[in-house]
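Worked example 2:
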Amino acid sequence: MSGLLYRLGHLCARHRLPVFVCWVILGIGIVAVTNSVGEPTSNNLVLDGTGSTNAQQLLDDNLPNQANGSNPVVMEAPNGKVTSGKNKQAIQATAKSLRNAPHVIKAVSPFSSQAENAISKDKRIAYISVVLDLSQGDLNEDQANAVIDAEAPATRAGLTVATGGYLGQEVSKPSTANSTLIGLAAAVVILLVSFGSAAAMPLPIVTALLAAAVGVSAIGLLGNLIEVPTVAPTLGVMLALGVGIDYSLFIVNRYRAFLDSGVPVAEAIPRASATAGSSVVFAGTTVMIALIALSVAGISLVTVLGFTAAIAVLVAVLAANTLLPAILALLGERIHKFRLPSIRTRPTGDGPYGWARWAQGIGRRPVLAVAAPVAVLAVLAIPMLHLELGQQDNGEFSKSTTIRQAYDLMAKGFGVGYNGPFLIAVDFGSKPAHPDQKKLQQLQQQEKQQEQQAEDAAVQQATEQLIAEGVPEDEAQEEAEQQVAANPPAPTPKQQQQQQQANQEEAFLKTSASDPRLVKLENKISKTKGVKAVSQAKVNKSGSTAVFTVVATTAPSADATVDLVEHLRSTVIPNAVKGTTLTAYVGGQTASYIDLADRIGDKLPLVIGTVILLCFVLFLLAFRSLVISLQAAIMDLVAVGAAYGVLTFVFQDGHGATLLGLNGASPIVSYVPLLMFAILFGLSMDYQVFVLSRIHEHYNETGDHRESVIRGLALGARVVATAAAIMICVFTSFVINGNPVVKQFGLGLGVSTLIDAIVALIATPAILLLAGRATWWLPGWLSRLLPRIDIEGERGPGGSEPTAATPPSPAGGPAK
């Protein structure tokens, strides 16, 4: 690998201008193409074998217009009521406008007979139910905006309008611009302090920005071919900037060390590529392998998230090994220009101060250096014991987004459960749905009896009046019957209301929705604790399938809602359909996220086991040491526990959540810990590789184990600490993002990076010191089986003969 990268670095340096121009053209071109074709994203929650997916498939096949559920367009009257003349007219005009919008199948006005409880009790809030012919996975931002534009009549009338459902989610993607600027500003300061040169500082940032532009645009283009999760582009930006700056930092740092040791520019660039570049390739490859390994979970959303994140890392690795050598060649020895007079740096780590003293301190107290961080990490991991996987909480989005505004209005007007209704999909099996003839006949007979009683009462009243007027009784009876037959009495208001209800019930009983089996199921569910409302079912023409909605009393992300779904599936529905041919599934977005959390919870041990095994194998290949491989795997597990514990403490338990812009405790989105683990593993590999490769290099040169650990740590610690500081700033800057999922990724990855750095700079070298020369032991049979991998240029540029690929260590002093 080092020989190949040596030649690649030499080629890029020699053709520096064409390489640089090609990268710029690629960046501008791919961004332009992506902007022109769009960046569609969606959250594919299809999970084979789950109740939500079974419901979705059943409705797709038999009731496609109901399969996607509805999207509420919520309106509030700032003054007066929504039922008043002007407001009512605006809402009706909006419903008509929405019906004419592209991809809208139906828009049910709250004043329509089809609407069910679509006007709040105080008549200040109402909503239009919008049904689209596009699923959440098919809808893109342009299509969503085209529908939302049709809400103009209500907006012009002064009503407060907000769009919920997956329609509102599609356009509620908070910008990453502020987070990116803050992260870059922090990187500028850290790089200035690290390099001590204003000329060197921009190199990692320029490289990372171009890599981020290409990588994130590639993810956007991919969204036109497959379903890319909504959070994928933001996660791509975080990773591309973080690893892009870090990888470039490692190479620039090694390049400057070569220059300081007297190596000319033309040779320093390819040597930096062959040494630090090899570590970058190895570290980046481990991150990508960990991310791609997420596919073992068999969950489409997680697999695509891992794949798209791997794309961002791949582009960062390519930029660091091609674009950066070209920029270094363009800059040459001018990299030391514009030095900051107050900052003196020792890129090699030599000297009695700074990281050399740090390494010597760990060498004197290795037991404490292992025990202290492990104890701290163990304490941090305690909250993980009650970690629960949940779903995205739209109530935690920024108040500037339409999805959050719709959430608040629905909760205010109707109840928080209306923000995530369940869809109950019913399969009638071998006996199709049919009207309830028995009840229909009873109702019709009852109506006839009531009509006869009303007629008899009218005849009796007329007879008594005629008798009072002196008409003989037998004649009065006959005359009264004739009068009532000619002029039936007008019904009273109460009778009119009763007749209207009877007509509605009769119309319902004539439909398949009155099937006694279906009505029993609805009644059982409506009486379940935690259920606020159940809608009337809709049955397809063949009577094979029905669907109705269930609204919970609690928020979609609440634990009580999860318990309700599980109770409906395990007890209520089975008891209600027992002895019938019916099969019922609980679906809808809320149920889909609950199923996703369950599936991820089931697969998380498999993914962790797979990645830890990969960690062990990769370290074994890289360093040919059982001790190093075992400690890496074990420390990864400890670090994961600590990172999960912090995430649980802050988000799930709500400690300090308000400082992050949240209202309080918020569920941890199910796929965040899974992605976090893969990325944490990759970053841990990065930092350990950069420290261990220096230790390994010195051990091969001197054979002195203790001195190699201390010396290698002193040489590698500074650049790892700088890289970690940058990564932490980049990740945590995304905490200010309005998307609660991005906040979780930002804090989680920031904490993970800090933990990785602590492990690499304290625990790992201390463990090696305690292990002594046994660190490098490997059974002979295993040594013969394992291929030899050259991690950081221990072989020469040609890949065969040993060479001074590592710069001689100067006695100290500032960089020139």
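The first helix runs from residue 2 to 14. The chain has 27 helices and eleven strands.
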